[in-house]
């Protein structure tokens, strides 16, 4: 190995390992042992499994349908974690789901290593796979166990079936990972078509016959007692009335790795245009690969791309009626990511290995990867922080008798699930002490108002919630033209009867919606939370003010909020 190649490998390895460490550091900083949305459905089902009287009933519940999917893999990890921890822990489950990303990274690392001599490939792989634009899945246990892991199992199944001269061992491993994929997420069913075509093209008649029988058995098992989800649209109606939208959805779905859909910026239309355009180009590239018969050169990469083309178009048919904006949902982005990785593999594999060509290739890969990370991936960490805050706020409200703030859409159902899980000892919410550490009580302080002015300041009190023994207040404020990074915010509560103000120190939290709304930069640190014990409040308080202290400039914002 040349000295230059060693230096390149060291730099590439250092960048990729640093990014992976940062990814998991962010995960551990933002995860919370609190269920979200569909987590409650799986927890409810798992509690029923634990309480089931017979072995047959337990097995039936393990295979119970969730929307269109049979997520047996998720439930097995629920069971393992329950046995090891004496209760379900959503932090553990989310970590296991994210470890599938590590498996995908290692898998492609070994694939690239065969073709990418003297080429930067570890860092691009790390940026695309450990991707903060997957935020919807990262701290959502049920989602990442399904959405990330089905990709890993699909890659492994395709890997073994596309090996030269299929052996009995490789065929068995193909079937094993096919089964795991199918019972991790319904998308695994699409593998059956791809694997059948591969065996047919390779003229493996014996294995093809065996495979079709096994596949038929799997399909029968999957669809036993299958019920169409109530919110799932009719496919025939979609084909009849939403043909054009379905195509747009499919292209957008395929290209959503470039959808910068930061919901706080309200740029959904722009993101849809970009993702649809990129997805169309991806599809044209795939047609080009068919034309040059790339499958003869690299059947594995072509098969992976074919799988995600199939998933994109089937999803377009089954989901477009629900709204085209669903095509850029973060939870689907891993599919587009893998397609892009396969494209990068193609270019690395087919670039002539001369000094000039390698220099250009490495430069493009490094610039593209770095640009993607800072422009697309890194900014979307904001959702992980936002979700953590919402989770703990929901639990705080729940402990104070209000379950309506639990994070999700069916709070009445969530309350019943939590009560049942608590009674069965399958899951317990974080303790009140832990919640109090995350959303701590505000300290009373002394403030001299003589130095505060009321000009050039913006702010608002967004939320006031009276809890059992405290009041929760949430808002934001900033001084015009100043960076909010180092500012401090204090809450002033006015007692109009005694004509006095009481002051409380605020707890900072990020407000990523302020920058796009005000079309400014560096406002994300303007958020503030106050949780004040009832005993510290005056009896007749009714006006709230926010005091901002930033680099010696002091401003007072009159919220005009009347609390009593």
Notes on the structure:
The termini are far apart. This protein is of the alpha+beta class and 564 residues long. It has 22 helices and nine strands. It has a domain at 444-562: Immunoglobulin-like (Sandwich). The relative contact order is 0.09. The strands form two sheets. It has a five-stranded antiparallel β-sheet, with no helix packed on it. The protein has a four-stranded antiparallel β-sheet with strand order 2-3-7-6, with no helix packed on it.
Short note summarizing the structure:
The chain is of the alpha+beta class. The chain has 22 helices and nine strands.
Number of helices: 22
Distance between the termini: 76 Å
How is the CATH topology of the domain at 444-562 named? Immunoglobulin-like
Record field, number of beta strands: 9
Beta fraction of the residues? 5-15%
- The CATH architecture category of the domain at 444-562 equals Sandwich
What is the mean pLDDT? 91
Shape: globular
Structural class: alpha+beta
What is the helical fraction, as a range of percent?
Answer: 55-70%
Give the low-confidence spans.
none
CATH H-level superfamily title of the domain at 444-562: Carbohydrate binding type-21 domain
CATH class (first level) name of the domain at 444-562: Mainly Beta
The biggest sheet amounts to: 5 strands, antiparallel
| Rg calculated over all Cα atoms | 27 Å
Q: Order of strands across the biggest sheet?
A: 1-5-4-8-9
